[in-house]
């Protein structure tokens, strides 16, 4: 009988403490400093409105007032950091060659028409700008715009060179980087712990387990950005207002990607997501303006 009472009281104490810290995490954890806040995020610069990852796409999104640019990086044969989602140029340029096997000068231009990955049967036709840009071109052109960098390959030189560029352009407070693979995120954090990192996919699964077992409020988290794909089974488990509120209270921003219609925009913001990543920055801006969703100060 005494053992049963002890077990019940212990479990009750754990549940109550977990619930309290879930709502008030700063009782245990220092809130992370939010270097910037992003509600409107342009995926690949807005791949549904301009050719993805081009300077034209980035300029259009920034002129529109986006809070953040999302882009992807690879390394050329002559060790130039370029902005491209694919490592192979077949889809983008119609040439079966890897970026890593070509010098920057040898890279071909984009095709005139590219499919929009996250929008079925949708294609974007570009204008004059079909050049694969250097990361430093983007940093030069948009010195005050937060940028979300996806390190696409497990390459120590790429990670080091991206870090060097971030430091050179004084962007440690305007950059977040990482990848879905945990070993890449670990390398990024080791290379430069001053640049905030994303949750990798294994760490998202770990976060999920911590949340549903009640352990999350007790655990420290080094990451500052959670990016969730939608729709997916994983998203249905993660899309919990209590989880978003807890992370936000700890200074961790929650982004949902890649959303391209108003129903999904609404659902994400209703659940308390910090921001939405979209291929259609104009569509998202019009939705936010119409629904009184203010830009971060």
UniProtKB/TrEMBL annotation:
<comment type="similarity">
    <text>Belongs to the glycerophosphoryl diester phosphodiesterase family.</text>
</comment>
<keyword id="KW-1133">Transmembrane helix</keyword>
<keyword id="KW-0472">Membrane</keyword>
<dbReference type="GO" id="GO:0004622">
    <property type="term" value="F:phosphatidylcholine lysophospholipase activity"/>
</dbReference>
<dbReference type="GO" id="GO:0070291">
    <property type="term" value="P:N-acylethanolamine metabolic process"/>
</dbReference>
<dbReference type="GO" id="GO:0005789">
    <property type="term" value="C:endoplasmic reticulum membrane"/>
</dbReference>
<protein>
    <recommendedName>
        <fullName>GP-PDE domain-containing protein</fullName>
    </recommendedName>
</protein>
<keyword id="KW-0443">Lipid metabolism</keyword>
<dbReference type="InterPro" id="IPR017946">
    <property type="entry name" value="PLC-like_Pdiesterase_TIM-brl"/>
</dbReference>
<keyword id="KW-0378">Hydrolase</keyword>
<dbReference type="Pfam" id="PF03009">
    <property type="entry name" value="GDPD"/>
</dbReference>
<dbReference type="InterPro" id="IPR030395">
    <property type="entry name" value="GP_PDE_dom"/>
</dbReference>
<dbReference type="InterPro" id="IPR052271">
    <property type="entry name" value="GDPD-Related"/>
</dbReference>
<keyword id="KW-0812">Transmembrane</keyword>
<feature type="transmembrane region" description="Helical">
    <location>
        <begin position="6"/>
        <end position="28"/>
    </location>
</feature>
<dbReference type="GO" id="GO:0046475">
    <property type="term" value="P:glycerophospholipid catabolic process"/>
</dbReference>
<dbReference type="GO" id="GO:0008081">
    <property type="term" value="F:phosphoric diester hydrolase activity"/>
</dbReference>
<feature type="domain" description="GP-PDE">
    <location>
        <begin position="38"/>
        <end position="288"/>
    </location>
</feature>
């Amino acid at each position: 009988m005494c053992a049963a009472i002890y077990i019940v009281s212990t479990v009750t104490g754990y549940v109550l403490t977990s619930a309290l810290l879930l709502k008030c995490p700063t009782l245990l954890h220092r809130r992370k400093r939010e270097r910037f806040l992003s509600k409107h995020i342009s995926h690949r610069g807005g791949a549904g409105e301009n050719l993805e990852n081009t300077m034209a796409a980035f300029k259009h999104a920034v002129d529109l007032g986006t809070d953040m640019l999302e882009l992807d990086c690879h390394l050329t044969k002559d060790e130039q950091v370029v902005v491209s989602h694919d490592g192979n140029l077949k889809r983008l340029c119609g040439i079966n060659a890897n970026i890593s096997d070509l010098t920057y000068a040898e890279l071909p231009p984009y095709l005139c028409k590219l499919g929009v990955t996250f929008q079925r049967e949708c294609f974007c036709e570009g204008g004059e700008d079909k050049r694969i840009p250097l990361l430093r071109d983007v940093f030069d052109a948009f010195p005050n715009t937060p940028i979300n960098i996806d390190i696409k390959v497990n390459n120590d030189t790429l990670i080091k060179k991206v870090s060097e560029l971030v430091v050179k352009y004084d962007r440690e407070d305007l950059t977040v980087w990482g990848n879905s693979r945990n070993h890449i995120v670990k390398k990024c954090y080791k290379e430069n712990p001053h640049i905030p990192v994303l949750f990798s996919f294994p760490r998202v699964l770990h976060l999920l387990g911590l949340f549903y077992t009640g352990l999350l409020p007790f655990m420290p988290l080094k990451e500052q950005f959670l990016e969730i794909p939608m729709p997916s089974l994983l998203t249905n488990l993660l899309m919990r207002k209590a989880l978003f509120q807890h992370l936000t209270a700890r200074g961790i921003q929650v982004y949902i990607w890649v959303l391209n219609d108003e129903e999904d925009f609404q659902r994400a913001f209703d659940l308390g997501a910090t921001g939405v990543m979209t291929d259609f920055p104009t569509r998202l801006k019009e939705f936010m303006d119409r629904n009184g969703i203010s830009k971060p100060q």
